[in-house]
Amino acid sequence: MLSISLHGQRSIVTGGSSGIGAATAKALAAAGASVLLTYRSSAEEAEAVAKEGREAGATVHTLQVDIAKPDDCVRLFEEADRLLGGVDILVANAGVQKDGAFTDLSLKDWNKVIEVNLTGQFLCAQEAVRRFRRQGGTDASTALGKIIFNSSVHQAIPWASHANYATAKGGLKLLMQSMAQELSCEKIRVNAIAPGAIKTDINKEAWQDEEAERQLLKLIPYGRVGRPEDVAQAIVWLASDAADYVVGTTLFVDGGMML
Ligand code: BGC
């Protein structure tokens, strides 16, 4: 286990009730950060994650939001002010998949994926930057604020029958880089994490039976499917001052899938 302290830092994790978001909320709490985790519909799951975080001694709250709605993003940061006293770290994690062969892809599914995975990330990040500026720095971190986008290996690897998803992630990469270029002079650190195949609900059919997992492993030189904690630990590091000179970078956590 990585020993990094985020004591005194306040974090938001969107999509924190399951998968990588849940592991990240727990890892941030274990590192000493306070956490506000958001969920779309699963209040019970979110509360279970929060409970684990509290057992690690951290302040953890949950909030229902739809990150694709501008008003919800504003409300999220108002709640972070009220419950945590502000925010130092945004992990913009919430994301969905709506897969389909190219000519079968409905406009609805195209829009949904762009709306959550790209526009939602943009809205949250925009609000985070406004808040970082308004609240000023603290002694807990060198940076004024940190934003970590949860991207994907598919920001770089084309993905047949997932055109909406790959398009959103490709866009997210340039959103992250453009923001980092524009904002790092204010000591706002913007980076992305790019998971490969991680065992979560989003890609269950790719690993839930032996044959599917065997096929998947052909794409992963390291020889195992990832765990949410693999990504969460990397996010904790990226959020910490140990990564203070890491700006505008995508950290691939993929067991070598990019290779
Ligand atoms: C997707 C997963 C997929 C992985 C590797 C992720 O971004 O959400 O469904 O298994 O990329 O292809």
Radius of gyration: 17 Å
How far the N terminus sits from the C terminus, by CA atoms, comes to 26 Å
User: Helicity range of the residues?
Assistant: 40-55%
Say which molecules are bound, naming each kind only once.
beta-D-glucopyranose
Q: What would CATH call the class?
A: Alpha Beta
Summarize the main sheet. Answer: 7 strands, parallel
Q: Which regions have little confidence, pLDDT < 50, spanning 5+ residues?
A: none
Shape: globular
Order of helices and strands: EHEHEHEHEHEHHE
Q: Give a count of the beta strands, DSSP E runs of length 2 or more.
A: 7
Number of helices: 7
CATH topology: Rossmann fold
Average pLDDT number: 97
Spatial strand arrangement across the major sheet: 3-2-1-4-5-6-7
- Coarse structural class: alpha/beta
What's the CATH H-level homologous superfamily? NAD(P)-binding Rossmann-like Domain
Question: Mind explaining what this structure looks like?
Answer:
With 259 residues, the protein is an alpha/beta fold. The chain has a single domain (10-253), classed as NAD(P)-binding Rossmann-like Domain (Rossmann fold), CATH 3.40.50.720. The protein contains seven helices and seven strands; from the N terminus they run E-H-E-H-E-H-E-H-E-H-E-H-H-E. The protein has a seven-stranded parallel sheet with strand order 3-2-1-4-5-6-7, sandwiched between helices. Helix 4 (107-135) runs parallel beside helix 5. The longest helix has 29 residues, at 107-135. It is globular. The structure holds beta-D-glucopyranose. Residues 97, 152-154, 195-197, 202-203, 206 line the site of beta-D-glucopyranose. Beta-D-glucopyranose (BGC) is lined by residues 97, 152-154, 195-197, 202-203, 206.
